[in-house]
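Weekly structure sync, notes
Attendees: PL (lead), two postdocs, one rotation student
Agenda item 3: pending single-chain targets
PL asked that the sequence for the first pending target be pasted directly into the notes so everyone works from the same version. It is reproduced below exactly as submitted, 165 residues in total.
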Amino acid sequence: MSKRNNYISWDEYFMGIALLSAQRSKDPSTQVGACIVNPRNKIISVGYNGMPTGISDDEFPWVREGAPLETKYPYVCHAELNAILNNIGISLENCKIYVPLFPCNECCKAIIQSGIREVIYISDKYKETDSVKASKRMMDRAGVTYRRLHTPLETLTISFRESDI
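Predicted structure, written out during the meeting:
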């Protein structure tokens, strides 16, 4: 018997972990996850967008529009920053971060400062915003590479049915 042929690639695996982490987000409109991996393909940390630790998910707003302090934006911690902060003290030098959505400029600063050297993403739907333009400008200057994940996969299904295991 030979090995199975339809297994997922490392990139698909780590992006799958980022997408699974996103499912922990309470944000009703945008769920984002992140997975940080070292050069030996070991997962260092994961994160998702949500309120900071100790802040109730029920006491702060989740809306996108309105007066600034009545929206989610000043309160929510993005997935990339959460993954960096969730790290238990292992160096992030030369690591990669997998994120479904291209990082904003604030997360980009944390990515650069932490020593992460590559960003792998699925969507760049905000590429025309100043935030993403600033991210790319900073990463280009800092030598952080970024690339879109190219995969033939459209979905990755996880089953909890005992019969599927």
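Discussion points:
- The beta strands are 33-37, 43-48, 96-101, 118-123, 145-148.
- The longest helix spans residues 10-22.
Action: rotation student to compare against the earlier draft before next sync.
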